[in-house]
Design goal:
Layout lengths: L4 H10 L9 H6 L40 H6 L1 H4 L2 H4 L14 E5 L2 E5 L6 E3 L2 H9 L6 E4 L11 H4 L3 E5 L2 E2 L1 H6 L4 E5 H4 L3 H7 L2 E4 L6 H11 L3 H22 L6 E7 L2 E5 L4 H8 L14 E4 L11 E6 L8 H5 L8 H4 L3 E3 L2 H4 L5 H15 L4
Parallel strand pairs: 3-4, 3-7, 4-5, 7-8, 9-12, 12-13
Antiparallel strand pairs: 1-2, 5-6, 9-10, 10-11
Helix pairs in contact: 6-11, 11-12, 12-17
């Protein structure tokens, strides 16, 4: 089922707070990184699998998530806005490389006795994060749209074993790998947290999606690699700023459009791609300037997607979406971006599913090549 306001309120009530202190996340992000835009929701629960909200997977995914309806997307805005604040106390106080260390996270505190060497990741963002830190996980889950590693990570991720899908964890397979760390999120796998914690130290962010920078730092803290993560975020931010500087005052409007089974979405401020557009910054059409994950449109409303540039992705098989019908329709051909040759397909696994710094850098490379060549 889709998450209700009560589900979202539960996150606010259960998230730990550390009063009177600034966590390492606050200090690491301050001074450059633009925060707080973008987010993702998924359906609540699945039989024998992980529930909650996140940024990828799902039989009828939403924003890379598991099919919230439009009502739940609209209701998510107020709760999304508090996530960054709640994460300020997350992380560890131990010096880099010092173990044991205690990590504060969405489910409380977890002691990590030694630097992990066998990590299982439960979502695409955590996969991106550990690979960015030079760590090859021993176990991964896949999205329901693809049962293979994202192509942009294959060369660096090694050969991790599959341990189910984002929405259906295989706890037995996870345990068989004898991990010493499990990384995931509360809104993905809260119901499995106790069982996972019995297998290995488990650290959860609040949710995948727009707090991807904070999630990266939290994941890095488990390995004592906070400085390395911050350096990568700083480099990402510099790349985003360079694109903005190249454009000057000529900032084209951008629509991130996604075709999904049963729905078509224009991604808005509370999405992973929304944070990247904000960081450049690149404006979006007015319909997308909302503190929501996305705005859904019907094929008959595809003209609402018009912008200087339209970048569109498709989740899973195009045949399970209305992509072909829309792109072959008469209305699509009337859009200004289409007429000018500025409606382009992009990789769904980076633009909408990546949820980490490596995917963000890939998106920046796409944007640079299209809208700011030479930057």
């Amino acid at each position: 089922m889709s998450p209700t306001p009560d589900d979202l309120a539960l996150v606010a009530r259960t998230a730990p707070r550390t009063a009177g202190r600034r966590g390492f996340l606050t200090a690491a992000i301050a001074g450059g990184a633009v925060l707080g835009l973008g987010g993702l929701l998924t359906a609540c629960g699945s039989s024998g699998g992980s529930g909650g909200a996140g940024g990828s997977g799902g039989s009828a995914p939403a924003g890379g998530g598991s099919s919230p309806d439009q009502k739940s997307v609209k209701q998510g805005g107020d709760d999304y806005a508090t996530v960054i604040e709640k994460m300020k106390g997350f992380g560890a106080d131990a010096a880099p490389g010092v173990y044991p260390r205690t990590l504060r996270h969405a489910m409380g505190e977890t002691v990590i006795p030694a630097r992990p060497t066998r990590v299982v990741v439960l979502d695409t963002g955590e996969l991106d994060n550990v690979v960015a830190l030079g760590i090859q996980p021993v176990g991964v889950v896949h999205t329901d749209g693809s049962k293979s590693l994202p192509s942009y990570l294959k060369d660096k991720a090694g050969s991790p074993a599959a341990v189910g899908t984002i929405n259906s964890l295989n706890l037995e397979a996870i345990a068989a790998l004898k991990p010493d760390l499990i990384l995931g999120s509360q809104l993905r796998a809260q119901d499995q947290y106790t069982q996972l914690s019995k297998i290995a130290p488990t650290v959860f962010s609040l949710r995948p999606g727009y707090p991807w920078k904070q999630n990266f730092l939290l994941n890095a803290s488990a390995f004592g690699l906070e400085a390395e993560a911050k350096a990568q975020l700083d480099a990402y931010q510099a790349s985003a700023a360079a694109i903005g500087a190249k454009l000057g005052d000529k900032r084209p409007t951008i629509t991130p459009l996604r075709f999904m089974p049963g729905r078509t979405r224009l991604y808005a401020e509370l999405s992973f791609i929304g944070t990247i557009l904000t960081d450049v910054p690149l404006p979006q059409p007015e319909i997308e300037r909302v503190r929501e994950l996305a705005v859904e449109v019907s094929p008959e409303q595809i003209d609402k997607a018009d912008a200087d540039w339209i970048f569109y992705g498709v989740y899973g098989s195009p045949s399970s979406t209305n992509q072909d019908a829309v792109l072959g329709g008469a209305l699509w051909k009337t859009l200004g971006a289409v007429k000018s040759g500025q409606a382009r397909p992009v990789s769904d696994e980076t633009w909408f599913l990546g949820l980490g710094v490596m995917a963000a850098n890939a998106v920046l490379a796409d944007l640079k090549g299209f809208v700011a060549p030479g930057s």
